[in-house]
């Protein structure tokens, strides 16, 4: 199946933090892929802006190296890369100082979309917004893209929203959560709202529970200092996992358009129940001493160089949604580092049939709709069928596999990365897959008391072994409800 590519309007995209890690790994390679796909019109221009002094050629070399490193060799076409690089230029600017702003203004063209990607720390958002207005670089139709973290609590998120609102209208602000740009996540909406099969079952009457897992095998590594100030709850649950939960739990929007979708997500966040402390398990990975031929592994405390840190590298929670549709259906969320497998998955576990006519209760399995975000994006629906052959009426579970790469007849490398899709949405002026200010604030309003609770009690995270599936207590969170976590498989 050949996917349709509709070129976007001509644009000037300025990437503040254009020499940073995110620009190098995701934004710039993503833009190259959109160029290769034919989505970038001839008049599109990309301008890197950061503090380092360099000229256009040096920046093109930086971008060409990034393409070399992060794009598969099969897509390295010298002529194409050259043509792509010709659209790039660079301006040295400091968000907090003068210099470079008039040059940047001079590069902006009339009659094309202007977008400004703030790929810098949030402490610079305000200064950048101010400079763009002070120098008349942004116009009334300009868009700004802001990266996570969007605040570290409700007060700081409100302050950030207020600062941005001084210079830009909400319709111009694109708060990025790259999970929403994933093919599978959007497919979750397609599966729910473009089929009549699932939606009638999507409620407390038929769904037993939901599991959302984001597991990583790596530790905090060199990001220890940054990570230790946030932890799994702030880094993953408040934003990415909350967004996934919203898409599963929301009511059908009346239309697939920005405010209709975001209104429904907001209602879910507002309906989240407070989480009692016995429904939360936090963990920190332990280290491992060197053994024959195997290097020692640092613990979380070693990684963050603070033996007293109480920040969690793992969290599991049982979350309830107080509304008609989800009354009594637990949403179990877990995320952590240094776990057994790298996997992100949403699993909808349906209730067992009310009565088994086959008398084989022991082999009975519930139907599960599993939506995999990584490693390979796709969906499987497990169903019970008769075991083939003449052995009598024995049941077996088989997956109906909807792995996109197979279904679409592609090798998987053509599925756009979340960032490239979202950047194209910015150029198109479509905010559906971006978080609105009130959504972010509502998410913090739910998160803050949870964090304050464990801080006030002085709770210490439980230790867990690297390569395990998390602390023992997290298993109990489900066992005590007569359920179990799905296996962590990469
Ligand atoms: P980085 O430290 O690698 O790069 C920061 C960039 O900002 C550099 O280009 C630097 O020159 C520029 N910069 C710093 N101070 C500046 C100033 N005063 N004026 C102008 N430019 C300045 O950071 P990063 O990893 O690229 O992250 C950028 C943002 O994206 C951060 O907010 C981060 O939290 C967020 N983010 C990063 C990732 C990732 O994978 N790297 C993922 C999600 C979110």
Structure explained in plain terms:
By secondary structure, the protein is of the alpha/beta class. The chain contains 15 helices and 15 strands. It is globular. The chain starts with 10 loop residues before the first strand and ends in an 11-residue tail after the last helix. Bound molecules: nicotinamide-adenine-dinucleotide (NAD). The site of nicotinamide-adenine-dinucleotide (NAD) has 23 residues, from helix 1.
Number of strands: 15
What composes the largest sheet? 9 strands, mixed
Q: What overall form do the CA principal axes indicate? A: globular
Uncertain runs: none
CATH superfamily heading of the largest domain: Dihydrodipicolinate Reductase, domain 2
Radius of gyration: 24 Å
Distance between the termini: 27 Å
Strand content: 15-25%
- Class per helix and strand makeup: alpha/beta
Return the string of H and E elements: EHEHHEHEHEHEHEHHHEHEEEEEEHHHEH
Bound molecules: nicotinamide-adenine-dinucleotide
Total DSSP helices: 15
Strand order of the largest sheet: 14-13-12-11-7-10-9-8-15
- Averaging pLDDT over every residue, what do you get? 93
State the name of the first-level CATH class of the largest domain. Answer: Alpha Beta
Would you identify the CATH architecture of the largest domain? Answer: 2-Layer Sandwich
**Named CATH topology of the largest domain:** Dihydrodipicolinate Reductase, domain 2
Short summary of the structure?
The protein is α/β, with parallel strands linked by helices and 490 residues long. The chain contains 15 helices and 15 strands. The chain has helices at residues 21-36, 56-70, 78-85, 101-107, 125-134, 154-165, 183-193, 224-228, 231-249, 258-271, 300-303, 404-407, 418-428, 437-457, 472-479; strands spanning 11-16, 45-50, 88-92, 113-118, 143-146, 173-175, 207-215, 280-285, 314-319, 331-336, 343-350, 368-374, 378-386, 395-401, 462-464.
């Amino acid at each position: 199946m050949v996917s349709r590519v509709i070129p976007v309007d001509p644009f000037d995209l300025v990437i503040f933090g254009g020499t940073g890690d995110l620009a190098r790994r995701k934004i710039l390679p993503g833009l190259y892929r959109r160029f290769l796909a034919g989505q970038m019109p001839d008049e599109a221009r990309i301008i890197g802006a950061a503090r380092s002094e360099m000229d256009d050629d040096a920046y093109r070399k930086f971008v060409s190296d990034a393409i070399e490193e992060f794009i598969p060799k099969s897509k390295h076409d010298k002529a194409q890369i050259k043509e792509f690089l010709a659209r790039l230029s660079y301006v040295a600017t400091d968000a907090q100082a003068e210099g470079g702003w008039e040059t940047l203004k001079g590069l902006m063209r009339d009659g094309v979309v202007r977008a400004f990607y703030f790929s810098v720390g949030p402490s610079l958002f305000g200064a950048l917004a101010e400079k763009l207005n002070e120098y008349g670089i942004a116009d009334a139709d300009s868009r700004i893209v802001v990266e996570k973290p969007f605040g570290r609590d409700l007060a700081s998120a409100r302050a950030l929203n207020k600062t941005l609102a001084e210079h830009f209208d909400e319709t111009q602000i694109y708060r990025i959560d790259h999970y929403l740009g994933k093919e599978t996540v959007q497919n979750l909406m397609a599966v729910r709202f473009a089929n009549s099969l699932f939606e009638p079952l999507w409620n407390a009457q038929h769904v037993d529970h939901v599991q959302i897992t984001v597991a990583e095998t790596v530790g905090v590594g060199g990001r220890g200092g940054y990570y230790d100030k946030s932890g799994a709850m702030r880094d993953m649950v408040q934003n990415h996992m909350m967004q996934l939960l919203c898409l599963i739990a929301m009511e059908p929007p009346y239309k697939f358009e920005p405010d209709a979708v975001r209104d429904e997500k907001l209602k879910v966040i507002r309906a989240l129940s407070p989480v009692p402390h016995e429904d939360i398990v936090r963990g920190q990975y332990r280290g491992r001493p060197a053994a024959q031929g195997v290097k020692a592994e640092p613990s979380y405390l070693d990684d963050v160089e603070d033996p007293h840190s109480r920040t969690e590298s793992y969290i599991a929670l049982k979350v309830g949604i107080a509304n008609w549709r989800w009354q009594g259906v637990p949403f179990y969320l877990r995320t952590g580092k240094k776990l057994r497998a790298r996997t992100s998955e949403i699993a909808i576990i349906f209730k067992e049939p009310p009565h088994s006519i086959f008398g084989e209760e022991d082999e009975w399995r519930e139907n599960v709709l599993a939506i995999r975000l990584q490693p390979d994006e796709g969906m499987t629906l497990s169903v019970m069928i008769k075991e083939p052959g003449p052995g009598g009426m024995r049941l077996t579970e088989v997956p109906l596999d909807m792995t996109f790469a197979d279904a679409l007849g592609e090798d998987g490398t053509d599925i756009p990365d979340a960032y490239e899709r979202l950047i194209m949405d910015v150029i198109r002026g479509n905010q559906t897959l971006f978080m609105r200010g009130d959504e972010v604030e509502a998410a913090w309003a739910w998160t803050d008391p949870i964090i304050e609770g464990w801080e006030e009690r002085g709770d210490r995270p439980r230790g867990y072994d690297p390569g395990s599936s998390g602390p023992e207590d997290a298993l109990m969170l489900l066992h005590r409800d007569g359920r179990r976590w799905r296996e962590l498989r990469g």
